[in-house]
User: Fold these one by one.
Assistant:
Number 1:
Amino acid sequence: MSLPNAILGLLMYTPMTGYDLKTMIDRSINFIWTAHLSQIYRELGVLEEKGLLTSRIEPQEDRPDKKIYSVTEEGEKAFLQWLGKFPAILSTSTRDEFALRIFFGSKLSDEELAFQLERFIREKKEELALLDTVAEIILTQTEKSGMESERFYWNLLLKRGVAMGQVLVKWAEESAAELREHHKGRKKE
Amino acid sequence: MSLPNAILGLLMYTPMTGYDLKTMIDRSINFIWTAHLSQIYRELGVLEEKGLLTSRIEPQEDRPDKKIYSVTEEGEKAFLQWLGKFPAILSTSTRDEFALRIFFGSKLSDEELAFQLERFIREKKEELALLDTVAEIILTQTEKSGMESERFYWNLLLKRGVAMGQVLVKWAEESAAELREHHKGRKKE
DNA sequence: GAATTCATGTAACTTGTTACATGATTTA
DNA sequence: TAAATCATGTAACAAGTTACATGAATTC
């Protein structure tokens, strides 16, 4: 139920093509929600059939014609209804491929796990560095496109991303240290 | 690709029925990976057809017969192969219903958002309290069922859950405070 | 000369969710 | 007396992933 609503929400800023939506998603909510282009095209079709979107064709030479979608009044209503229905935290389903492998860590060698933790630390730090760029983008983009009212909320999420990233790096570093101790302890036995 | 492997991994501890697996998942990896019972039965069927699991029937009166699954040698091999292939962090897909609504926060009233942040704080704190119980369960369960070698890895994940929960509560509290300031600022305009 | 960008999608497959069906036993 | 526990699933639908198809223009 969320991807279609994310699409509606983004299209409320400005009408766009499916392709535009994909690049916008990659540059905005990608840390929160990801989508494949094929999925976006499918959802656009569904939303138009339901009357929550309308499209107009902009002819092009050399390239496929653009199909530009805009949100209808009904679409706005549906979006706002969804927006107000926040999910319960405790019943939220999660899927964490990395953590799942840690759970079965006893079946991996300590060396392999140490290697993966180091990789995790490196990649999380890269992600944090990426968030610096996101900070700049939020600042400049909201200014030049008259979206100052969005800035506050986007910055909240940015801070959340930084805080989570930092705590995960800290956790992984401490875990790697503990793993070294654990490994020593097992060798003595 | 992960649920079937989680199932294989759990069945390697001890053979179980689909129903048992569901309760075990709810009590162990639920913070990492969730699954519906119908999904588990489907995956068990697929895994058995592939020869990664075998089952034997334990007849019962009054209730449907138990179908107890165990992992074959091939199943172990497949599981260990999956276990070694850690995912890249930067290409990981996320879906966060709560954060997605914050992203569109400008379309909500500040009062509504404040209310939802307070609810978030309350529920995250409940989750943290739940993790205290998990800590006890890990301690007692690993001891009495000879799974001491798992304890270290499970505790790593427990610490990760606590650290993340705490940082999210802190973030939400700071966000709620900032929202109050932001609201005042907007009223003056 | 190879990869990326722009622009549309379809098809097949895999996962995840919700609802339905059955039915005795135990606990609140 | 209503709900939860045990125990099996099926069916239908929704959502996510991967591969395929087309093809010019631009950048490396």
Number 2:
Amino acid sequence: MVASRTGSGVEEDLGWALGVVFRSYVRASAAVTDGIPGGHRGYQLLTAACGTPPATQTAIASRLGIDRTVMTYLLDDMEHAGLVRRRPDPADRRTRLVVATPSGRRRLARLDDAFHTLETRILAGLPAADRTALKSLLRRLATALDAADPVADTCTAVADIAAATAAPVTRRTSPRPTR
Amino acid sequence: MVASRTGSGVEEDLGWALGVVFRSYVRASAAVTDGIPGGHRGYQLLTAACGTPPATQTAIASRLGIDRTVMTYLLDDMEHAGLVRRRPDPADRRTRLVVATPSGRRRLARLDDAFHTLETRILAGLPAADRTALKSLLRRLATALDAADPVADTCTAVADIAAATAAPVTRRTSPRPTR
DNA sequence: TATTGTTATACTCTATAACTATA
DNA sequence: TATAGTTATAGAGTATAACAATA
């Protein structure tokens, strides 16, 4: 499905393994969230909308890592589907609080079940003990990366790498010509 | 960065952890492959172009999981950057073999170094023993998923899940109206 | 003046289909 | 007839900027 690197041996290739597993998850997730506006993203929004206390659009958008304009469109669809509702914030008339409807909460419960089943199937290729170990390791690494704000962190680190390897720059600055 | 699920406890949430780790990798990878046409995808193509025997465009495209039309555009850019070259296949005049230029091979060597450093930094949040364990587990799972052709597999399985959970269907069939 | 949310616009990426040249 | 590659077109997703309402 995805090329394995031949140069340095597949056993070193974190990116390949990560990509394969992640893509499997994404595909399966897309199937599970079919019918939810925005797919997996709508599921994440629904999860946030079930949290307490209710959060504002911008708060949820930044937690989900999406643009606030995208959040507007996504919320329009989710509201139209009857899963969430925009509620005025008594404390600040600029903001709106996002809350799940009863229907949305029921749907989320079913989705959570489906995702649990999905995880089991994805991990079915490993023995039980390894499944637990992998989940634990992944979670610990994710927590560490999340806490370290690896975005800026890794980017600067990588700039160092790039400088160290000193590749001649070959930028594609011009957009692809229209054909 | 990404919402953690509150409902069923973060310790069960494979998707969250997988997403965080994968996104960290993707961001760092984007920084490393800056200057390579197509970013990480161009890097994968370059890796394939260094393999022996040379592969055809379609063969590489399917291994990389991209469309053959995308492969055309990507190859145009990579060839223009002087990293790879299209070579006629003596055995079949319809096909073209993709081979890396000497410049491309040098660039790949540097990229491999950078990726190795990148992996080390991504995994820095874990103790050494856990790093090895995680890589091993991920690789084994990826191999299992890859072999099982999980695409169709998981999709049908997930259809079962969806049927079992029996969520009322709420499709968004109409495209978003132009505004 | 800064911020929340909305809208309009443009751009990028990808998918689909049609075309050619070969087999 | 089927396949490899190319090209054109359309669509989805995303980012950017301008705007109104409120702080």
